[in-house]
Write the structure tokens for this entry.
Amino acid sequence: MTVTQETEDVVVEPAPPQAKAGCGCPSRRAVFSAVGAAGLTVALTACGGSDDGGGSDTDGGQEPAGEASDQPTEGASGGGGGGEELAKTSDIPEGGGTVFKDQGVVVVQPAPGDFKAYTSTCTHSGCTVKDVAGGTINCPCHGSKFSIEDGSVKGGPAPKPLPAKQIKVDGDTITLA
């Protein structure tokens, strides 16, 4: 009995270049090639936000000056419709304000009894502003700061002021107009 052995040619390709010798990490080129256009789109979308007032935060509720809260203000029902109660005047600190993410508005009190409102969507890349502190409305995404007096840009990359929103103060109640 005779046994015949067939052999195949095996081609071995070199490994892709490494970012640093000996680190075992793929190169930047290899990572971007692997991620492809779809992965890059997802990554950029996560950084950007939208222009629909939703911003990059999605957990709802409001954020009083300097602290986060997932609880809506008493009487607030979401949706941003006119006549909706946002807060009591005593809820908005003098020289500060409150961000109402669900309603897409930030209400401030720059001087005692003077209430103003602006969109809570940053004019830079559509993120929702986070808080009001030190006389400015602050965006967490890229550091833009807006004046509580008139919504003008006080710092950061934002190209335009925050647009004003209409509110109505009736006694001790603040509502969307």
